[in-house]
Each structure stands twice: as C-alpha cells, then as structure tokens.
Amino acid sequence: MDENKTQPTAVPVEEFLAAVEHPVRRADGFALLDMMREVTGLEPVMWGPSIVGFGTYHYRGASREGDTAAVGFSPRKANLALYGLIYGPDAEELLPRLGKHKTGVGCLYINKLSDVDPGVLEQLVRTGYDYVMTELHRP
Question: Which of 5, 85, 115, 139 is spaced 20 to 30 Å from 56 by Cα?
C-alpha cells in the first residue's frame, strides 16, 4: 500500500503565506488562517510545500494509507483550494448557499473569499472538521 507523499513540514505557515505572490490570494490565505485557527482551536502545520493544515487524521483507502490534515487550504495561482469541507453532514445543504465555487474530488475551489458568504464558509469548516475528527477518525 502506498504512503501519502504529502507530509507535515517544519516550514512556518506565516512565512509561507507571506511569500504568496498574488496579493489577493495572500490576504485571503491569512484570513483563512485566522478562521480555521479559530474554528478548530488548533495551530496550523504546513503539509508539503503548499498546504496549510489543521488537525490530523489517519485514513486507509484501497491503494493508499496515511495521515493527512483534517481541514486545510492552499492558495494556488488559479484559486484557493480548501480541503476537508465537502464531507460534513451539512455540506450538501450549505454549498448552494456558499456563493461562487467549484468542487472536485475532495476539494472546494473558490477564486477569492469575497466571492463567498463568510458565515457559510465558517460553517463548512466547522462541520467538515467535526466530521473528519469524529466519523472518519473512528477505528
């Protein structure tokens, strides 16, 4: 079984975000940092070179097993990728109210935070984190 290639690093999160070139993506990254820190009550950890993660859970799939962040984000050039938010029990009801977004396999993509309702996004973070840590974290 393959291991997850994306592992925690010792890179300071604030240092990573300060180096994001796009000014809106950089500001949105710091805003997401504050929101996720407040919602989870945890300090962030860099996962690989570009993912800011909160919390950890162990997963086991058909071809891969490992640890990953419970929720997190990556300020990419094209958009903000948010992880762990589309699995919660309320996601199906919350996503239509979020605002302009796309979803992919396990990810929520938004262009900028001003495109979405911050209250709905915060609920998605909360329910996604709770779901991952309670339902997916079961032995």
Answer: 115
| Domains of the chain with CATH codes | 2-136 (3.90.1150)
Instruction: Compute the mean pLDDT over every residue in the chain, rounded to the nearest whole number.
Output: 91
Q: What is the DSSP string of 1-34?
A: -EEPS--B----HHHHHHT-SSHHHHHHHHHHHH
Backbone phi, then psi, for 106, in 5-degree steps? 80, 0
- Alpha-carbon distance of 26 to 9, in angstroms, equals 20
pLDDT attached to residue 105: 84
* pTM for this predicted structure: 0.91
Degrees to nearest 5, angle at CA 96 with 91 and 100: 115
